[in-house]
Amino acid sequence: xxxxxxxxxxxxxxxxxxxxxxxxxxxxxxxxxxxxxxxxxxxxxxxxxxxxxxxxxxxxxxxxxxxxxxxxxxxxxxxxxxxxxxxxxxxxxxxxxxxxxxxxxxxxxxxxxxxxxxxxxxxxxxxxxxxxxxxxxxxxxxxxxxxxxxxxxxxxxxxxxxxxxxxxxxxxxxxxxxxxxxxxxxxxxxxxxxxxxxxxxxxxxxxxxxxxxxxxxxxxxxxxxxxxxxxxxxxxxxxxxxxxxxxxxxxxx
Length: 253
Fold this sequence. Notes:
Layout: H1 49-53, E1 60-71, E2 77-89, E3 102-107, E4 117-124, E5 130-138, H2 144-158, H3 163-178, H4 183-199, H5 208-215, H6 222-251
Parallel strand pairs: 3-5
Antiparallel strand pairs: 1-2, 1-4, 2-3, 4-5
Helix pairs in contact: 3-4, 3-5, 4-6, 5-6
């Protein structure tokens, strides 16, 4: 299991939907544009930061309750988790005797506690019988319900195969959240839009910057408003640069 640093976006510590999601993680997918206006092809999976930096490294995303914890070799613990909800990946079959789906997970001592509920991003170990933790969100943390909703939606977006439909669905989810009166949701949406403006420019269309501004017309927090203006301007500049390059390409003999 990785021990990761905090998330800082645009100079502000924002919602931090996944505490410990580190900027240092390499995104599997599109790289930042090499030149202004250059739009990389759509990558696999959800274009959000969580989709690119966590879900693509995950074989199984679940909400689970810890059934038991035992000592393993080399100072690790082995936790047996009862699966409550499978959001992504192929779960093990239902045990015919217990009528439960369970997975064995290797973790550092103290990671799991019997009876505790959590969201876990899991990677299969060699052979596929056991898993290691990519990231874990315990139910005792703040905004657990919101984090669970984000994980569910991220997994749903990853299943949309058509890139245009995936981009539209992503914006149709994040832009209303950006205008939410719930500060956690609005800051989370800004965090993701900021990431996508830098790493996933293919998501945006010509009207996105204006949609961002409209969504936050009632916002009053100065730092949040400044962050929204910054993201909207970056999206607008990116789309303008891309249009200019396309126009230049059409004018070539």
